[in-house]
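Journal club prep — side note

Before the paper discussion, L.F. wants everyone to see what a predicted structure for a comparable chain looks like in C-alpha cell form. Sequence:
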Amino acid sequence: MKDLQVTLYDVFGYLLPGAVLLAAIGTFYWALFFPMSPLWLVDFSPATWIIIGLGSYVLGHFAQALANMLPWLFPRREVIANSPESRNKLLAPTLVAATKAKLCQAASVSPDGLDDAEVLATCARLAKLCDGAGTDSLYGYREGFYRGLSVAAAIFAVGLITRAIRGSTTILHDGITQPVTRAQMLFLAILLVGFSFLARRRYERFALYRAQHALISVLFGFPAKEKSSKVKAEP
C-alpha cells in the first residue's frame, strides 16, 4: 500500500473529466427514465462524496479509453506534430531534420530509412523514458486533462439536449422551486459544445509542445535531475 501514489494525472486526467461524465450520465438517466420528475438538490454526506469521487475516478478512465478509440478526433502527438499545419506553428523543419540526423548517426542507419513520423515517435518514446517526472510528464498531464474534458463535455451536451427534448423541468432546493426551460438547457448545451471544441484545441496545442520538447531534448540532451518518484503513464 505504501507504493500507492496519487499523481496529477489521477486528478486532472481521470477525476475531473470523470466528474463531468458522471453528471452527463445522470442527466441521460434523468431524461430517459424520469422526464416528469424535478431535479432535487440535496446535501450529500461525506460518505456519499467519497462514493461520487471514486465513481468519477473510474469514469475518467472510460473517458480516456473512449478518446483512445477516436484517433480521428484525438490523434497521437506524433501524428499532430507531423501535419503541415503544425510544422508552420512550432516545429521548424530544420529542428526535425537536425534531430533526424542525430538519431541516424547514433543508430548507424541511413537517413533515407527513417521518415519524419518515425523520428517524432522515437523522440516521444525517449522523452518518456529519460525525462521521468519532468516537463514531458507535465505536458502529458495537460494532454489528458483537456482530452478527457473534451469527451465528457460533449457527452454532457448530448445529455442536456436529450433532457431538453423531453420537456422543461424544475430544480428544487430547500423548498425553493426554480423552473428550467428548454431554451436554458439548450443554451448550456451549446456552451458545453464550445468548451469541448476549445478543450480539444488545447489538447492539440500541448501535444505540439510535448513533441517540440522531445525533439529539443533528444537533439541537445536531457537536463540532469535528481531521481524522482514513479509517474503513472498516460492511457
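L.F.'s comment for the group: The CA atoms of residues 82 and 117 lie 6 Å apart. Keep this in mind when we get to the figures.
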